[in-house]
Amino acid sequence: MNRTLLGLAAVAIAGFGATLPATSAAAAADYGPDTCRQGYVWRGAKPSDLVCVTPGNRDQTALDNSVKHTRWTSGAYGAHTCLTGYVWREAFDGDDVCVHPRVRSQAAADNAASPGRKVAAKLWISKYTIKPKIDDKTGTGTTTSTDDIPKLKINGSHYNYGQVRLFVRYSATNRVAYSVTLGASAHAGFAGGSFGRKTGLFDCSGPGKPANAYAQAHDLVSGRWSARVPIRIGCAVL
Q1: Are 128 and 198 in contact (CB under 8 A)?
Q2: Which residues sit opposite 88 in a β-bridge?
Q3: What is the pTM of this model?
């Protein structure tokens, strides 16, 4: 089958749009890749500590920092030896604030979990084809001339739980070829809010056919945008 580039001709697929949505006025500030998902905040064990934790754990961290001098004594580990019953928090290398053992364990757990609590806004493209429809009575399958041409699916993880807006735009003009708002939710094996959306757009990539468009996602809760993922669209079967 031959595929011909249609340039900027619109493809009649449900869900296509031509305008950009307004950014949600309720969106929180975007702090880049260190933006915490809704419900989490930076721990602040030191000014550069951007580990995402619950507000309660941040408050505990601030309290421990404020009384650290009262828990130090001179001993086997120098002037910052912990009083009996306390241990170094070790939220970061060199963190010698003395805390209860359970707090140190919580700090280690938060360090491990933090990457999945950030709005990293990861986006990637996969491909799919349409499976033949089997007639239950005759056992025969029905196909169309485009069933074997791969189509594009937009996938994402590390978003807030809530609404995400997906776009496909032509690179040269930034004109929207496809847009849809969907809900990012929890899925096993993926961090944060995740999703997968079949677009119906033909994959027009191939030797000598560079990308002419890109996919991008907008986390409407935080205002964070994903990176642009190059794709090629705009072809049809003759």
Answers
A1: yes
A2: 98
A3: 0.80
